[in-house]
Amino acid sequence: MPDSATQCARCGTPLNPRAVGGLCPRCVALDFFTPAPPDEAEFENPLIEDSERRFGDYQLLGEIARGGMGVVYRARQISLNRQVAVKMLLHGVLAGDAATARFKAEATAIASLLHPNIVAIHEIGEHQGRQFFSMDLVVGQTLAEKVREGPLPAKLATAYLQSVAAAVHYAHERARG
User: Fold this and answer.
1) CB burial class (10 A; 0-12, 13-18, 19+) of residue 142?
2) For residues 24 and 9, what is the distance between their CA atoms, to the nearest angstrom?
3) What's residue 15's pLDDT?
4) DSSP codes joined into one string, 56-95
5) All structural domains of the chain with their residue ranges
6) Is 0.70 surpassed by the pTM of this model?
7) CA atoms of 115 and 101, how far apart (whole Å)
């Protein structure tokens, strides 16, 4: 039987000497495609200090949302003592060059926009190999949460649609020029 230095730390499969993080390709892929729930994955991440759930200049206060590419936290920016949202690339150094480039392109594109219906980007950076950006924190219900309660009144739905259309038009015009 192989010793612990030459087998996957999770499943015991014999490892190639170049294995990433002591895991076999199968376990790395499982982590990539099926991230652990937020209370296990992010707050047990060694890049986030347990004492304050600290990530660089940010104290992470709780998860807001999670998607295929990233996770967004409510955070306190320590140096400026303000609440912000921090979006991190989900899989850190294992995300790959294409995902990292796409993440940076998203942040850079949004940062170039100044519109009342588009959140402002405050910082784009990397902390211990993990890409992130901080942005305005928007509190309240999402549109999905609002419509779960029932259909919106026509005037309110129209106002929301008008706000979204104005923001999309603004972004589209900036992307063309």
Assistant:
1) exposed
2) 8
3) 73
4) TTEEEEEEEEE-SSEEEEEEEETTTTEEEEEEEETTGGGS
5) 4-33, 38-135, 143-176
6) no
7) 24
Q: Check the CA dihedral 169-104-131-82 and report its sign.
A: negative
Interval 54-91: pLDDT, tens: 999 999 999 998 887 889 999 999 999 999 999 998 87
Instruction: Encode pLDDT of 26-53 as tens digits.
Output: 655 554 444 444 444 444 454 454 556 8
Residue 18's SS3 state is: coil
In a 3-state reduction of DSSP, which class is residue 148? Answer: helix
Residue with tokens 């104290």: 59
3-state SS assignment for residue 21: helix
Sheet of 121-127, strands arranged across: 54-55, 58-66, 70-77, 82-89, 130-135, 121-127
Q: Which two tokens stand for residue 100?
A: 């990292």
Q: Domain 38-135 belongs to what topology?
A: Phosphorylase Kinase; domain 1 (3.30.200)
